[in-house]
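Late entry, evening session. Most of the bench is empty. Finally got around to the prediction I had been postponing all week. Sequence below, unchanged from the version circulated by S.P.
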Amino acid sequence: MAPLLLHAADAASGTGGVVSGELKKWHKVTITFDGPETSETADPNPFRDYRLNVTFANGARSHNVPGYYAADGNAAQTRRTAGNKWRVHFAPNEQGTWNYVASFRTGADIAVSTDPAAGTATSFDGANGSFTIGPTDKTGRDHRAKGLLRYVGVHYLQFAETGEHFIKGGADSPENFLAYFEFAQTPGSRARDRKELRKGEAARARFHKYEPHAGDWRTGDPTWQGGKGKNIIGALNYLAGKGMNSVYFLTMNLGGDGQDVWP
């Protein structure tokens, strides 16, 4: 289900971070930088008081992409909340050589500032490098064969590579799809203290488990922490197998009624 992650140092150069991913058009390329050692709850806070932007350029084309604090770089497996890894993801829309340069600055609440000169440059600011992108090798329903979706002035979004339009069809429930029992740091919420639960709402200590879909997980699909995640990945496989291409859910509902999903 997930693209194979490859160390791509042999196809990259420069004094920047570590480039990984399949170096192909429309595929996710990841760059990881070594930066300040900190933690999710530190002050200054890595999510508010640091800002990472990386500019990617190919000829006359350039894209400015925001990055983020990634703890030890493998937190999905280790559950670590501290480390010195800072990361950015990019989906190249052209073949050939891409050059990149990092802007890394610190200051109070700089993450929400629109001023490029806000704060102070620090650590790996100015780190740069390059990598070479080849053609995609994906086919069929894989979106990496079709390109990014874009708005072209008509009702339906269009794939940038193939020109075909994306017509969405999928499940609309549960909106707290991510209230899943195998995600770390997911305690019961105040909303589930109610004696009566509404349709689709997960009860305290009884998050969604999606147990009927354990058998829909396939070898090679992602898991974490020694095999966790098979049920929720299997649920997505099941929906895809029925021809669906979208799932509606919330990525955070702490300000709403469920209070059981957050980044």
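Two things to note before I forget:
DSSP finds two helices and 15 strands in the chain.
Confidence is low (pLDDT under 50) at residues 1-10.
Will write this up properly tomorrow.
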